[in-house]
Amino acid sequence: MPLTAKLFAALLLVPASASAADALVYASAYTCDANAINQDLVDTCARHFPELTQDANDAIARWRSRNAAKASLAHDACEARIEAPESTPALDDATLSRAQLDGMRFDIRAAFQVRAKQEGSGACVEALGQLANDGSGLDFP
């Protein structure tokens, strides 16, 4: 999937106050922790809109059926860079520390919770559609 499509889809999850440069870093954080971030999204939707619980569970199951292996490899690669940054040359400016990754995951979760409260169930329907649909911007290439 082209990077632009992945960035566009990741913008569903990025805090509104994020700059374009920050969006790239958030996209990197998403890549490092996509399974957990998507689970946070699903949990938020199910908690705020119980009528979407089954759709949320179906969406995450479909996303995992397509992406679990690649998401696990990406997570493991990020963990290796975090645990041994001095022995791994920086690949780019988006190499993250544990604190940065945890902070961004918190920011992404909080931003989506605010969006769901402000926009209602439509925000969840849109995000769950991204998870469920093959080839969405939330899929790994």
Mean pLDDT, to the nearest integer, reads 81
Report the biggest beta sheet as strand number plus sense, adding barrel if it closes: none
Based on helices, strands and strand pairing, what is the structural class? mainly alpha
Shape: globular
Tally of discrete structural domains: 1
What's the end-to-end separation, in Å? 5 Å
Portion of residues within helices: over 70%
Regions with little confidence, pLDDT below 50 for 5+ residues: 1-11
Helical stretch tally:
5
Instruction: Please give the number of β-strands.
Output: 0
Strand content: under 5%
**Helix/strand order:** HHHHH
Write up what this structure looks like.
It contains five helices and no strands. With about 140 residues, the protein is an all-alpha fold. The protein has one domain. It is globular, with a radius of gyration of 15 Å. The relative contact order is 0.22.
Write the layout of secondary structure elements.
Elements: H1 3-10, H2 20-48, H3 53-83, H4 98-119, H5 121-132
Helix pairs in contact: 2-3, 2-4, 2-5, 3-5, 4-5
Would you kindly provide a brief summary of this structure?
The protein has 141 residues and is mainly α. The chain has one domain. The protein has five helices and no strands.
Keywords:
141 residues, mainly alpha, 5 helices, disordered N terminus
